[in-house]
């Protein structure tokens, strides 16, 4: 039996662990999705980073998964956008390290690109060599997968790095390779000519620079005001160095116009972001205030119910103390009356006369008789004991169990391990007056007394049948016999007859 219990416990613990792990992973994935969506909004970068870090805390970093790699990569991107370059590089390295046991080339390409980009913007001594190493690994994998987009991105990134190193001819060669990749889109061609114009600007080959700008401008998105403004500024410098001052002024005006539109658009976006942030803060404050109100209400209700509970406990305690005092007084009166009865009976057996009156002394005055009236008064004290003990029993834990049995739907008898403790708890309370009742009416049987007590404490025949494992027809016979063997007053008390 013990081995079976241990086995059940181990299995339950195993499934509970699996369930908790599953819940943690589901919660981690939900937080990652929320953080990913929030990262699209430039004003929510801090909130997005917090969500992603919470998602990471729910994951087991010793067991790499695709979700873990994506979380590392997205956190690195957030720190990169927030200008925390060292933290961004650390998480990018973690993403690459976690990819060792994961077979997902798309994630691996993203991880290589992320760590290379982080090296590119750091102030480390060998940053260009490290960036080139990871972009070349990205390029090799992209070529192996025939992923044209990542091939173009790798060439463009390597070319931009060579521009930073002032290796303009090598950078132009990289841009040419990027342009040679099939399935070019208009945006890719615009980017190609844009990069060529940069290289020719640095090489001061102004005619070639202007030619690249002329080809790049029509391909750019007309709403990309920043890129177009930069092209016109570059065109202005080229015309200026060629001493074409009139044309230079025209392109300078165009650059100013596009830069103005760019700043105006950003101003609208900033205003929109401020408005949205204000609305979110207002909603958060309202929600916080609402939660505070609910918290105050809940705490108030808890305090009120707590006070009521303490009041009820205090009231019940006082009531029980009062009942105990009443019971002690009744017991004292019963003991006194029983002693008087005992002495009177003993004296009468010895002398054949009644007990002398206490006021006159022995052999003097009127003698005291133990009359039927006194016997009836003693019986009334016994019955009063039953009434007080009933009030005490109603406060015991056994009484609610008896009450619940009244709503017992099936008619099956209670097993002994349930019914016997209930009967014992009743007998424990009423044992003293019950013994006196049996002494007064010796013809009463134990079954008849138990039945009478069950009815007395509030059970009906159906409940008594369940507890005593007796049919209701037999219980009706016991009721009849109890009535015949006791007085009308006793019967009315136990059976609730008014």
Description:
- The longest helix has 107 residues, at 245-351.
- Helices cover 79% and strands 1% of the residues.
- Helix 1 (2-38) runs antiparallel to helix 2 and helix 5 (105-121) runs parallel beside helix 7 (148-164).
- With 498 residues, it is mainly α.
- It has helices spanning 2-38, 45-57, 66-81, 85-98, 105-121, 127-145, 148-164, 168-180, 186-203, 206-216, 225-241, 245-351, 372-393, 398-405, 416-440, 446-456, 461-468, 472-485, 488-495, and strands at residues 355-356, 367-368.
- Strands 1-2 form a two-stranded antiparallel sheet.
- The protein is built from 19 helices and two strands.
What order do the helices and strands come in, and which of them pair?
Elements: H1 2-38, H2 45-57, H3 66-81, H4 85-98, H5 105-121, H6 127-145, H7 148-164, H8 168-180, H9 186-203, H10 206-216, H11 225-241, H12 245-351, E1 355-356, E2 367-368, H13 372-393, H14 398-405, H15 416-440, H16 446-456, H17 461-468, H18 472-485, H19 488-495
Helix pairs in contact: 1-2, 2-3, 3-4, 3-5, 4-5, 5-6, 5-7, 6-7, 7-8, 7-9, 8-9, 9-10, 10-11, 11-12, 12-13, 13-15, 15-16, 16-18
